[in-house]
TrEMBL record:
Annotated keywords: Mitochondrion
One of the record's GO cellular component terms: mitochondrial matrix
Protein name per its UniProtKB record: BolA-like protein 3
Classification via InterPro entries: BolA, BolA-like_sf, Mt_Fe-S_assembly_factor
Gene name per UniProt: BOLA3
Domain of life: Eukaryota
């Protein structure tokens, strides 16, 4: 029988390996699809980053987007715009973290 501490250590090593693998590889299909949708919806975005934070299975994503389209809008309104843009995609997700910003002049 494997000890709990050995099990945890073994799984931590695997997670570090998977993170390194993700860093060295290209985006997942889901990341690419979501980024494409957001680029179309927010063409003036100056920065966009989409990360599958579910380990690659597509259940949860983190989105960082900087766009002039958010100027003058409260954070909740900015997030509503992102949610609306990803309405179809969100149906198949367990969660979505959204970080929005307005570019500095």
């Amino acid at each position: 029988m494997i000890s709990v501490s050995r099990f945890i250590h073994k799984n931590q090593a695997f997670l570090v390996f998977r993170q390194l693998q993700r860093t060295l590889s290209s985006q997942t299909d889901g990341e690419t699809r979501i980024a494409h949708i957001l680029k179309e919806k927010f063409p003036s975005a100056t920065s966009l980053k989409v990360v599958d934070i579910s380990g690659g299975c597509g259940a949860m994503y983190e989105v960082h987007i900087e766009s002039n389209e958010f100027k003058g809008k409260r954070t909740v309104q900015q997030h509503q715009l992102v949610n609306q843009a990803l309405k179809e995609e969100i149906q198949g997700m367990h969660g979505l973290r959204i970080f929005t910003e307005v570019p500095r002049d």
